[in-house]
Specification:
The structure is a single chain. The protein is mainly alpha-helical and about 200 residues long. Helices cover about 60% and strands about 0% of the residues. Helix 4 packs antiparallel against helix 5, helix 5 crosses helix 6 and helix 7 runs antiparallel to helix 8. The longest helix has 25 residues.
Length: about 200
């Protein structure tokens, strides 16, 4: 009697989802969002997909390849959110408020992805394209006409203020009973008016 040939590990069985790069990256995004980068393991990813770890290398180079793609996706998602909310804004009044609200909500909704969007993107052409899109949305929100030296300084100050608030909130740094939402609103109003107090 002829020996029955088993499906090789790494190849989809009948009815099993076809393994692809996009499927691996989707699952990696979901996994990292749940456990963070420090706990992410290729072996766990492979186990979830029902394949051996070496089979992943038919679709990806290594962990850094995955992390690079995840960073691009994080920048894309942030850009999409900012753009979507800016489209809803009044032409002159609500742009800054909606921009800052969207930025903060991204940090809350994607806590493990947020650190990826604050690092400079100049060294990689694909990342730079995504970073430049967010920069243009920032220019639009704050009604800066050109990216001259003075505007660069202003954007750095804006980023420092907003990132500082986000990090303090994330780390539980606001311990007093006064409303954190009210504090963020006051920060927003300060950036809208150009006056700190």
């Amino acid at each position: 009697m002829a020996k029955k040939i088993k499906n090789k590990i790494g190849r989809p069985k009948k009815g099993q989802t076809q393994i692809s790069r996009s499927l691996i990256l989707d699952l990696a995004w979901e996994t990292i969002q749940n456990v963070g980068f420090s706990e992410f393991r290729l072996a766990t990813l492979a186990e979830t997909l029902g394949i051996r770890t070496p089979s992943l290398y038919n679709h990806i180079k290594d962990t850094e390849d995955i992390f690079g793609e995840i960073r691009k996706r994080a920048l894309q998602v942030l850009g999409d959110r900012l753009e979507q909310n800016l489209k809803k804004s009044d032409p002159t009044k609500e742009r800054i408020r909606n921009f800052l609200k969207s930025y903060r909500s991204f940090a809350k909704d994607f806590p493990h992805m947020y650190p990826l969007v604050i690092v400079a993107t100049e060294s990689d052409p694909e990342l730079k394209l995504l970073g430049d899109r967010i920069l243009q949305l920032c220019l639009f929100a704050f009604q800066f006409e050109t990216l001259d030296k003075e505007v660069v300084h202003r954007i750095r100050i804006i980023r420092s203020l907003v990132h500082g608030f986000i990090e303090l909130e994330r780390e539980g740094g606001f311990g007093r009973k006064e409303s954190i939402e009210e504090s963020f609103m006051k920060l927003t109003e300060s950036l809208e008016t150009g006056k700190l107090w």
